[in-house]
Automatic annotation (TrEMBL):
<keyword id="KW-0677">Repeat</keyword>
<protein>
    <submittedName>
        <fullName>CBS domain-containing protein</fullName>
    </submittedName>
</protein>
<feature type="domain" description="CBS">
    <location>
        <begin position="87"/>
        <end position="153"/>
    </location>
</feature>
<keyword id="KW-0129">CBS domain</keyword>
<feature type="domain" description="CBS">
    <location>
        <begin position="17"/>
        <end position="81"/>
    </location>
</feature>
Amino acid sequence: YSGKKGNQLLKEMLNKMTVKDYKAVPVVIKEDTSVYDAIVTMFLEDVGTLYVVKERGTLAGIVSRKDLLKAAIGKQSLQDLPISVIMTRMPNIITCQIDDLLIEAANKLIQYQIDSIPVVKPLDNGEGLEVIGRITKTTIAKAFVELGKEKEV
Ligand code: ADP
């Protein structure tokens, strides 16, 4: 078949891949967690980004490896420094939702030069975004590999 048709097939496949089917489990910490404990959590959970949540599990902030490194080269005691002081906070967080296309989430990773995007669900009362998953560069790499194995559309 022609190249154009192959392209069309690939597009059809990409349009079926949604965040819902590929999202990973989010690793969350509370706002009053110390930077020290956040570093420990990052090692124990083996992730590159932690999501910071309020009491009811709604998104408050996000911390990356470099955010933690930056805090660690400062003079403060990491046990006494709450994560909320150094995190990137709402509303400046790039998020995605369950029905978004995976390729849209991938585009955000590139566009905003970030490693991870929280998958959120807006609460009915309008009081915040519940964190229900994560999309990372690893998620995209896995989906890419899977695409190569796909037998039929
Ligand atoms: P690193 O800083 O370890 O390279 P990132 O590139 O993911 O990791 O993060 C870069 C900066 O952007 C950090 O300050 C981080 O807090 C922030 N950040 C990470 N993910 C997001 C996101 N989804 N929305 C907004 N800011 C983010």
